[in-house]
Each structure stands twice: as structure tokens, then as C-alpha cells.
What we know:
Blueprint (H helix, E strand, L loop, with lengths): L1 E2 L4 H21 L4 H21 L1 E2 L10 E3 L4 E11 L5 E10 L6 E3 L4 E9 L11 H4 L2 E7 L5 E8 L6 E3 L6 E2 L4 E5 L3 E7 L4 E2 L6 E2 L5 E4 L1
Helix pairs in contact: 1-2
Amino acid sequence: MSIHKEGYKILLSGFILLVGLNILVSSLCHELILFKWFFLIISLVLYIFLLFFFRLPVRPLDPQDGLIFSPADGKVVVIEETEEKEYFKDVKLQISIFMSPFNMHSNRYPVSGKIKYVSHYPGKNIVAWHPKSSELNERTTVVIETADDKEVLVKQVAGAVARRIVTYAKVGQMVKQGDELGFIKFGSRVDVFLPVGTEIEVPILQQVKANKSIIAKL
């Protein structure tokens, strides 16, 4: 277990801020011993949560053709056929995974292949489990073409709390199933769009883990 690189600046800034606030509280409220201890405990809890949020567990994965692994930790909130309007402009099978602030937020490639398309759209910050969040919220779209010429679309969607989506994918890049696609900070959702007829391996509301849970078979 390690700390994700996207958390370094936030953890340093948070540490400096909390130490400064505790020094200030201690100097202004030197007679209120219980309050000082309460403030210190709350500060420690907040910082431990930040460390927990930016954790990066080791998730080794041997790529397996034909299997779609979950790109994120979280709960499956959508399994349905829907029109994908940005890239395919056709009906696809959508599987959406909601990540709460308590989930690991590193996103992974569900398949191996070549990056065909990458785009980022600014947008709103509707709660990530809302059906319209996939179309209205800030989002990044990545399309991977597999070795057998199938295209899988992965969409990182910001939520009500998330304010930054990080994506490492670049057009033309060859990627391996299980490698890191990106990171979303503080609550979010990941959508996967697959060919209609893809065999689903998870039920709705199932808890899944990136690089561990198989969500579908092509």
C-alpha cells in the first residue's frame, strides 16, 4: 500500500493548514483544554481520511483477452442499453460504477489495446449517481480499441464533490489491461460502454474492485 502521486500536494497543504490551525487554536484558547484536544482529534481524523482517500493498493493483473475488468472500486449503479452520443452515436451497453469518497479512486484500463480517442468536457457537478451526470457533469472520455478491433469506451465523470479529473491516456498509446488510466478526486463515477450483446457478469448494486472484479465478457 502506498500514497498516490495525485495526493502529494493536497496532503502537504492539508498538513500545513491543520498544524497552523492547531497552533492558532492553542494560542487563542489556551485555557480551554478540552476544546484544544477536541480540535486536535478532529484534525487527526481529517488527515487520516485524506491518507485513506489517496491510498494506492497493489493490484497486479495478468491481461485476459475477452474479459472486461472493473475500471474502478465502487458500486454498480447502471446496467442498461443506451445511446452513446459522444463517440459511437449508437446504442451501447452501459455499465456505471459509483465511487464514494471512501473508495479507492485510481481508475484502471478495463481492456488492453490502442487509445483511439481522448476528450475532456467541463460541466456541472450533479451527484454522480444521477442518470444525467454522465451527460451533464465534467467528464473525460477514453476509447480503447482491442486487438480484435472491438472498441470500449471509458468515461470518468466528476460528482458533486469531485473537482478534478486526471487522465493519463494519449491518442495512439498502447495500454495494458489493469494499468492506471487516471484518478478522480473526492467522489465520482466511471461509465463503461460496450457492444450490445456483451455478457454481463455483475448484478446491479454489486460492489466491485478495479483489477479484481470481472464485469463483462465480450
